[in-house]
């Protein structure tokens, strides 16, 4: 029998703040009522702020993030279109697979898991594409399977350097609203996010933030894929009035209102800084335990999820099972080729320093139970030291004010 | 400023019972946890009971019902396939539109709005299709725009009479779990439902109940439409273990557990009988006010929604606006060609007799405010008389027991 | 098995608005945290506004309203003190009983049930009390058992006319925050209220609003009753810092914050006007059914509860049982001598016109089922006519604005 | 701005489990409905099981635990009665104070804070009371201010050894439902508990479990204190039918149902064992940090709360403030003479091992920030070692089963 708070340290769904849970606990309402647009038009506007997408628009689909991946493709590309993708983890792999199923001509660059988007290889390929056969370039901003963040601005530079007109697709499911994302500045055309990560909502709603260029591509004369549920046109016609082409999950809108309020009250820059600080604390803890990250170097470190190799001879799945069953803590598993070798700590969303210490404490004890030779307390102590050091300037200020 | 309980008499989303709201108000959980299948496998099994689909399987998609419409088509048909559809209201119209967008060769039979599926016309067309060019026959079980229920068993008889192998697609969004639906017995191959009607959940989850024949069609060698988000194969691979191919909205599963428990505790037959009794009470009330239904005769009456013509010279949209603004009551509007002429009362889901009296009271006062010449109280009184009469046998029993 | 919304038309607990329920659904918190006073000090201030008590203070006790009755007595009176009380219903009766148990020398004036405080009799008694032996005068502002409201300002005039120094105790449990109450202006010294009526919260918190004079009486040198749980001094010492002498139910504070916000957003005057309009609608409905109120005349009508005689030969308890079991509606019962003769409709708190129509519809059908000869629909129609007439000026305005 | 889960490690209110929160989130209901007794009579019965009081009865008062202290006294004792009490912390002190205010002739034995009930001194006093002038003996089972548990069975032995008829009063607010309590076996006559500790509910409901002897004392001919709100007789008359003499907070009953279900599903013995194991883990952590408990020795250790001396030169209030403001963790403060020297960790209610590790991690970092020389991680590591060792037999079993 289970007691107490269960810790959720998977990289999504994340902990839904009580404020958001409360906000969502509403009676059903008339999705065609005259009052709804006051709520929804505000959400559309604020989502644009969250994506830093001033010029385009954001769609909300009742679907998981995977649905928004599909929406992005169906509305702007046609079967047989050539696209450039990189694969360096399970989620970039799945996106490749979807693109292939939907009939795209996918040119895949495989990258060692632990690294992210290969700017050089992209540059070479883009440079070689003088005829602009590549219709779109895809990047997984944050590869959730490996805890690796890619350089989107770098990809933009590559495209610009060659004046290449390809659309830039970004999977930001586990990055947007947690780490820096600047759609306009980085020239991202289609950015995908989901409700259950940085937006701190339950799963079930996806966001697709679209540039003016992508909207134009949707409207132009080239035939696109057959589509209906995820069609932009239906959404645009209704969204502009604050409504939707089919029954929307209005309870999510109330939750999203609360979640966006929380993000803006904190300030996006502060949200990102908090994620960095908490992630770094977790990483120090990991290092304190003598463990290694999958991410191949600091330039790839993700501030939303860390994938961690267990020591040789230890079964990572056993660590995860022990954490779940004995210590009421959910960690993420190693996916595909990382299965059994890796466990993952999600450190995104509504999180604080003590929760991270607690994740480390649970990891330590579970590793030890699973037979790893680690020094108990060493992870907590290392994170602890970092948090104190990182907070030192703030503390001086606070103590002066006290 | 608004006070008190707002009455929701649209034909979905319906009132979510407090028990279901409570059940859904859960912290997020690990969608790959070892505990999840205990919950989800039970749901899959009980959904089959609710659809009376013993031999096939039910999918749950994070989407509106519209998504399940698309899933049904993408997984079993190919672009260019000939299908037979009937159009007799806004929702059957939208399904036709989707089928066309997805590239089907749709043969549409237009029927007077107020009637349902035209068995004779279907029979004629099926009889003529000796080569079985028609791959699928579509029926909207309950046309939500007109309050008309169609005879699905009749369509099955037509197909059987001609040994026609077409798949039978049914839109049961506003019927299933509220009025009788027998998938196996009626030979329905793909039945679509949504969370927010008879299943008494918020919007955001769709159900697609699929026969063995439809599953075989999905697996056979004919190419089907490009698909990924709604692909059966991914779902099947994961669902069999109690998991999902992408992050599922687990909060809905807890709500669905409660909703199915409520349906089975009451007993499906009793659920249907209750819907009939409440619907008939509303219809008597409508008649008591001298108003006419859109449904062209009793054989078409829907037990989940009534579409009601306002008297000549009265603007139905004004009635709806008054009900909403002055009397805290949401009625459905007249859609498409019925706009301005019709208002709709949804009477499905978690409902009782006094709620129906209350809907009638709100309708009376709103009609009067909008200038209709009606006798105040006449609707309530007529429904009242019916409820007392309908309950009489039960009451005799109860009084004997007291 | 029960379905749908259960109607609550008892005179408290009243319907807790969803907004308040949401606000109360909070994790427990540290009752000594530095953040708590920000919440609680605001509540104390706003409660004073709600009682129109600028000069004194309001206490919040974790108790029912009955506890606040006791607190009022224990802190300002001593065993053997003479007090003047009137008894005209079950709740004024219970207060008399409490006063006697606590050792007061109670002079009771019995009044016909259906009338309220007897100003003449009070005047006679006060005039005769030249030596000011009467330490306190008690009045039940709104007698919940009979649906009768008393004239508090009139009692104040009586005391002032004779310059009588007695403390004025008022039971405002079923009046305050629903109908007009002006503590400072009316010179009320101790006003009792509960969370579960006009304040729209669940039961469990009581309010005692105390004048400066009553606080002085608490502090003066005369010995008072033994007390500890309800002692003012402990509360004052802690409340001034925003804290409490024992563990407070902090969840109520969040609910109270929301409830007070709702009251002030609407405006207390509008709250009172709404209660009057809704109550009058119910009364018209009652009259439309040919039934009689217990309240002996319009000057006694309560805007928060109506006690209604059933026709001769009908058992009121049977009406209530039928309403509860068949029609999902809770009415109040006839208390003490009114038992079996009376049912009560509470019409206070978070309420709107259609809810009142619905209560009348449920009353009609339940009365008919119980054998009463009433005209179905007549109650709804009469209320309906009143609401339309009462709203006419507003409507003209609204229509002009549309 | 605050993020993430706030840790609540005060000794009450404790963390309300999500299941209990959900259960309490109900619409208001008719407190006189025919359905209520089904719920309430079950609660009364199960509360008796929780107190191990088969022969007597349990009262539920809408009040804090302090109210139940008062109820116990008012209903069985008279002003001037001699009672024996021991004072060894802030809560035993407050109970003495209440007894004095209510007019009892209190003989107080002061004990060094850090120890509990002085059996020798009680024995001496009881032995000397040949005339049985002492009407009641009071014991604070668990002194929440010092983290000290007293030997109730020992007090019973003292009374029995001298065949002394005094009533035995026990304050079990922070013990019952968390650590062993056996009312019948220990001959406890009046046992006080509150909703917000081991019963895992929000504050606002108190429990008073009363033996047959105490009920007889309530009924006998000796005059008792004036009482009304807390009078047993009114409760008994109504409780036997499942009702209450004044509006009860029915939402608590639904929460209590869920909480009792949780306690019995786990099994009371397992609940106690869990509390012991978690408490011991915390104590090992404290020792690992080189800190000292207020409790003067293992025989006094409380399994629900630990009071911990901070090192010389460190301000305990600063530690608490830092924990609250920087590390989102609420610890209890040092009360009265312990103020500034002590912080307290509540470890009761809905709790698991990782939460305890997390409390220790927060304590470590807050102590360090406040200038204490402690070894970071040492507390977590020591608790960790204990949990692994304590769980070893269970783990062997589990691993065999896996």
From TrEMBL, chains A, B, C, D:
GO molecular function ontology, one term from the record: L-serine-glyoxylate transaminase activity
Q: Catalyses which reaction?
A: glyoxylate + L-serine = 3-hydroxypyruvate + glycine
Q: Please state every residue range assigned to the domain named Aminotransferase class V.
A: 60-291
Q: Name one Pfam family in it.
A: Aminotran_5
Which keywords annotate this record? Aminotransferase, Pyridoxal phosphate, Transferase
Q: Report the EC code(s) recorded for this entry.
A: 2.6.1.45
Q: Which residues carry this modification: N6-(pyridoxal phosphate)lysine?
A: 197
Q: Which amino acid positions bind substrate, per UniProt?
A: 344
What family does the Swiss-Prot or TrEMBL record give for this protein?
Belongs to the class-V pyridoxal-phosphate-dependent aminotransferase family.
Q: What is this protein called?
A: Serine--glyoxylate aminotransferase
Lineage of source species = Bacteria, Pseudomonadati, Pseudomonadota, Alphaproteobacteria, Hyphomicrobiales
